[in-house]
Amino acid sequence: MRYFVPMFCCLLLWLGATAQNNVIPQLHAALHTAGDSVTYVNTLNKLGMILYESNVDSTFYYARIARAVADRLNYNCGKAGALNNLGIVYEMKGDQQLAQRYYNDAYRLYRQAGDSANMVQVTMNIGLVYSDGGEHAKAVAFLRRAMSMGRHLRRDSIMSLVLANYMSIYTDSIPRDSLFPYLNQAKAIATRYKDQRVLVFLDQVAGLFYLRTGQQEKGIALLQAGVNKALSMNLYYLSLDVILQLGDLFSVSDTAKATGYYHQALDIAQAKGYHLYAELAAQRLYNFYSSVQSADVHQYAALLLQLYQEDAMFRTKSGVDYIDYALQEDALAAYQNTSHYRMRLILILSALVIVMAILIFFILRLYKLKQQHNNTLEALNESEKVRNEQLQANHAFNNRLISLLAHDFRQPLNMVKGLAQLLLNYNDLSPQEMRTLVRSMEETSDVTLDIFENILQWIRRQLSGFTYQPEILNLHELVHEAMQPFKTLSEQFGITIINEVSPSLNIKADRELVQFIHRNFIHNAIKFSPEQSTIRIQASNNNGEVIVQVADEGNGIPPEKLQGLFDFKAELRYNNGKEKGAGVALMICKDFTEKMRGRIWAENGNPKGAVFCYALVA
Question: What are the UniProt keywords, alphabetically (predicted)?
Answer without folding.
Answer: Kinase, Membrane, Phosphoprotein, Signal, TPR repeat, Transferase, Transmembrane, Transmembrane helix, Two-component regulatory system
